[in-house]
Amino acid sequence: MQVPVRERRTALGLVLAGSVLALTACGGGADPGAEASPEVDTTGFTYGEVPTENERGPSIDESLMPPEPAPGAPRHELLAHRALVEVTERTWTADPDAASECPDVDLHEVESYVCTVTYMGEEFEYQVSLDEERSTEDYAAESTELLTGPVILADLEHDIRVWSLFPYVDCGLDGEVVVAAVGEELTTCVALDDTTGETAEFTVDYGEHGGYAIERV
Fold first, then answer.
1. DSSP assignment of the chain
2. Percent of the chain beyond pLDDT 90?
3. pLDDT in the model for residue 210
4. pTM value?
5. Where is this region: Disordered (predicted)?
């Protein structure tokens, strides 16, 4: 007996559908050649959210700064306050426990001396030198120079994330605040993308004005 064409087509369709289901069940629809992404090692890196923009700006809470010396205060007190302000402006973060001290000496006799600024638990050097061109026998004019300045590590890592758009950063530095020599290279920071394993390197130089400068390698 012949099976009607319509019934034969229906039976064939059921067979094909069953074959497709069987293949799907066996293979799970996965690509046999696909490999899982390798796990990225983030050991030694510090994690932080990638900023959408650099929101940090120059602003110091003046209420946390010591008052300026009174008019007519001794010269070494005025210079000590100036040194503290200059150190603070390197990070734009006031430390209410900061202190500064300059020796009470005659520049005509010593030609130069160093003031010490204690800021966030670290000591920084501020040099005062005799400016011979502007000085007279009765008046010692001075020039000043910050020899070492502060870098807040969390702020540096933040800036590296702004530059790299990667969440993991390693600058090879320890502590909350780092003592940096003015005019010298401070460190090299590495930023890491924990998804792809891609890295980016940045050199950090501590300039004579305005803190550190970042440049991609």
1. -PPPHHHHHHHHHHHHHHHHHHHHHHHTT--TT--PPPPPP-TT-EE-PPPSS----S---GGGSPPPPPTT--HHHHHHHHHHHHHHHTTT---TT-EEE-----HHHHSEEEEEEEETTEEEEEEEEE-TTT--SS---EEEEE-EEEEEHHHHHHHHHHHH--SEEE-S--SSEEEEETTEEEEEEEEE-TTT--EEEEEEEE-SSSSEEEEE-
2. 67
3. 80
4. 0.78
5. 29-71
Q: 106: which 2 tokens? A: 């005659």
Compute the radius of gyration of the chain from its Cα atoms: 33
Per-residue pLDDT of 49-91, as tens digits, reads 998 765 656 678 999 999 999 999 999 999 999 999 999 999 9
> Distance of CA 25 to CAs 19, 20, 29, 159, Å?
10, 9, 8, 51
Task: Tokens for 215, please give them.
Answer: 């440049």
At 11 the pLDDT is 39
CB atoms within 10 A of CB 8: 11
CA dist list (Å): 30 to 22, 34, 91, 99: 14, 8, 53, 66
The residue extents of the domains of the chain are: 62-146, 151-216
